[in-house]
Amino acid sequence: MADSIAAVHYLVEEGKLAGKIQEIYEFSFEELIPLEKCQQIARELLAIKNEGSCSI
Fold it and tell me: Per-residue pLDDT for 44 more than 70?
């Protein structure tokens, strides 16, 4: 998870971030997450980043 959050800091394009998230989880868990799911996650993470706040 830490690698995914780090990727949010240096990737600004949803597609590139989604690919990186997919790559990270495939490497870490040896399971390929569908790119569509990774795009949804990337979209949500970038929205949080761009809002400048987090509700957690």
Answer: yes
